Amino acid sequence: MATIQTTAIVLRTVEFSETSLIVTLLTRDLGRVSALAKGARRPKGPFEGALDLLAVCRVVVLQKNADVLDLLTEAKLHRRFRGGERSLDRLYAGYHVAEMLRLLTDDQDPHPDLYDLSIQTLEQIDGTGDPASALLYFDAQLLRRLGHAPGTEQCTDCGGHVGDGPRIAFSLLAGGIVCQGCRSRQRQLLSVRAEVIDEIRRLKSDQSSLPVEVPSGLYGELRAVMNRYIQTIVGSMPRMQPFLPASTRTESNA
Ligand SMILES: [Zn+2]
Q1: What are the tens digits of pLDDT across the range 18-27?
Q2: Distance 183 CA to ligand 1 centre (A)
Q3: Bridge partners (DSSP) listed for residue 57
């Protein structure tokens, strides 16, 4: 057993008993953690509203042995997620970040860089950044850092050169663009504008940083390619995908 102090983003809370919650956290030092928060449902419990979805807090986790849930013994609210007060787009964008982190990260597999990326993305969504562009950047960076970067350089099947042209074949199962020769072997193929592939390359690059602005003319196709690609990796359609922003720079009021 070890007591660990770290910062965390609340990804989900589930009622466990009349007074307790099971919380899923993305912590900076431990990766994803599921822990029991005793007394969290009592009106004047020890956690004082620190365990709301997407809240950022300072936590103390008591790590138990395998097969037993870790215990959350303290959570001090650092920042509350307020995107939902601004617009539905921002609210759902925040939910998407939480869902992606839940689906794609593993317990006890720390990625401090992913934690920092998530904090920066939530700041964009919560502030004045364009949520649609911020989410595409988040998805591309998350995928790359977890080893799922969509291939945009050479053919992801044979490694050969992919010819220039207005449209490029993108294989969902091979995980990226494919050349003319390999195209016929692919079962799940998208035909994607070359500019969209260029934009994916820019968004996933370790040289790019927030804030980003995705050209509005590329957004719809780019979001659709990323959605299909994420579905292939996850093995199902994430619940928030139908609610993602329909375009850049538009806001529907909550
Ligand atoms: Zn090929």
Answers
A1: 999 999 999 9
A2: 7
A3: 8, 77
